[in-house]
Design brief:
In chain A, about 75% of the residues lie in helices and about 0% in strands. Chain A has about 500 residues and is mainly α. Chain A has one domain. Chain B is elongated, with a radius of gyration of 14 Å. Classes of the chains: A mainly alpha (about 500), B mainly alpha (about 60). Chains A and B meet through helix 7 and helix 19 of A and helix 1 and helix 2 of B.
Amino acid sequence: MIDNLILGFSESLSWANLLWCFAGAIIGTFVGVVPGLGPLAAISMLLPFTYTVVDPIGAIIMMAGIYYGSQYGGSTTAILLKLPGETSSVVSTIDGYELAKKGYAGAALTVVAVGSFVAGTFATIVIALFSPEMIKLALVFTPREYFSLIFFGVVCACVMTQQHIIKGLLLVMFGLLLSTIGTDSGSGEIRNIFGTWNLASGLPFIPLCMGLYGIGEILYNVFHENKENNKLIEQVKLFSKKTLTKIKEAKNAILRGTLLGTVLGVIPGGGAILSSFLSYTLEKRIAKDKSQFGKGDIKGLAGPESANNAGAQTSFIPMLSLGLPVNPVMALMMATMVVHDIQPGPSVMTNNPKLFWGLITSMWIGNLMLIIINLSTVKLFVNFFKIKRWIIYSLVIFSCIYGSYVIGHNIFDLYILIIFGAIGYFLKYNKIDCSPLLLGFILGPKLEETLRQTLQLNNGNFLGFFDSGIALFFYLLTMILILFFSNKKIQ
Amino acid sequence: MKIKSDSVFFIAVFFLFIVQTKNYPIGTLAKINYGFFPLIICILLLILSIISFFIEND
């Protein structure tokens, strides 16, 4: 493994990749600070640009930097303004802003940066240790096991989205149906194209993503602007005695958050958001003095912030080793690889060791950059928050239109952007999280392919699906999940 | 009863796709054809939409 890490560092420490990593960290922090602009929108907007400008390794390193960078940046406005820049920072507003009001703004920001760095470093080590092992496991998977794994992943994604499981399943079905549009890979027949030959090669992924997460999000923000007007805490003193005291108080919470986030990041549907919410619940449950939670307890801030960073990073493990995206951001990472002619999955490590290890080591370098960026430029980034909303919205809409057009040079892609922008707005208006839709769309072709292969291998016998210990294990897990969550949602 | 726009939306999606899918061959189970998967998903979508119509909103 040492040789592999040396190979990774030699790749990620090249000037070009350091620059892309830095660019990703800066863009991620910006995206995290500005409410209404998440990593999904940013990555989908930048994906077309990387196609022409950046080499594959640089592109993946930059996209990864945006994702974990946004977890750092999201907490800044949550602490100083009680406004989460990113969904996973919602819980940080509870105790973060209270701490800032009491004069602990600098201490809170430092604890978050230190916690995020510790979590990021630990998660990077876990990725380096476990991804190769997962790849070995993936190599013994037959279509039967893959089908059960994808089936489990899809159901898991529905369960974890904090909405009723039926809504999640409906969205997955919608995503699966959308994935059937175009040429069938098995027979070469064209299906579900609604009379338009532009759809013969399938729905274009980038305009679909930009529509759902870019245009849809902007439309929602325009029509339902957040009227909350909290006072911005401007007194930020990062290094003081208070900071040291708070770091000491928070160290156990940081470790717990790191461990929890590391585990939850690997579970389909998990990742940064779920990790931060569950970490807050855990900290509150085990605290000796629960009365301080909500009034400025550093543990209620340090735990979730460490957890979301660890979760964001370990969610790369299933994508890199099994080719299974556990959340929409990972689906976009996969799309980035596909755009650059790299097939995600177990073959990445053997065919592209430079990319695999370069990405892993760049995560640690990115985390190091982020702790410096976040501690030294807090005030600068908070100023971004003061940029007029219409400027940001106009830029996002322009990027979406340009990005959708530039990949295929086809005006039809803009129609897809508009249609899915409307669908994205409609779903958001109905308080439906569209992540399962995207996962269904991404996993659909693989699910259908493995379904067919398993049936063919077993002469059409459905019992063949259960003829394996690993497959049975995943079906059992899926059943437990459905039964457990059929009448409740994760709060 | 208040019309649930999301359930109606998914039922509309079902109709859109079932009209496309209904003439595709589904083949035998050992050699399923290109209509099999969309048809199964369409049926599941319809069942879930109906269930969703009757459950309480979040």
